[in-house]
Amino acid sequence: MQVLVREMQPNEKGDVEKLFARSLGIIDRIVFQLSFEGAQKIAQKQSGGTLTAEYNGKIVGTVSVRIQLIKGIRTGYIDALVTDKELRGKGIGKSLVDGAILWLEKHGCEVIYATADRYNSPSWNMF
């Protein structure tokens, strides 16, 4: 499966929210929506944002990235990874993580962390 990982375009917010609705339970949807909104705010400051995975012209995954300066070191964070529940296990998550790492490295991050819910074994295993 060949997916294109790229920065989310401003007009794609609705598509990302539809992905959350069809792929997440209600509690996760709330948590991911808050993270997504935070990523949009920091994107305006150019210290993070949202990457999307596109397959056949449809958004099938997203991941949020952000940068913080900690003790003078640019530190990157990867969180809020979501893939279309119908396409899980096909490499979309790995493509998003690889894209997020490249994005953070390109923006000068020396250290990169990933976050995952402690009960989300597939995400832990991927990271």
Walkthrough of the structure:
This protein is α+β, with helices and mostly antiparallel strands and 127 residues long. It has 4 helices and 5 strands; from the N terminus they run βααβββαβα. A 5-stranded mixed β-sheet has the order 1-2-3-4-5, sandwiched between helices. Strand 3 and strand 4 form a beta hairpin. Helix 1 packs antiparallel against helix 2. The longest helix is centred in the N-terminal third of the chain and has 19 residues, at 26-44. The mean pLDDT is 87.
Mean pLDDT: 87
Largest sheet: 5 strands, mixed
In helices, the fraction of residues equals 40-55%
Termini, distance in Å?
Answer: 20 Å
Number of strands: 5
- Tally of helical segments: 4
Structural class: alpha+beta
Runs in which pLDDT lies below 50 for 5 or more consecutive residues are: none
Shape: globular
The spatial strand order of the largest sheet comes to: 1-2-3-4-5
Order of helices and strands: EHHEEEHEH
Taken as a percent bin, the fraction of beta residues is: 25-35%
Report Rg: 14 Å
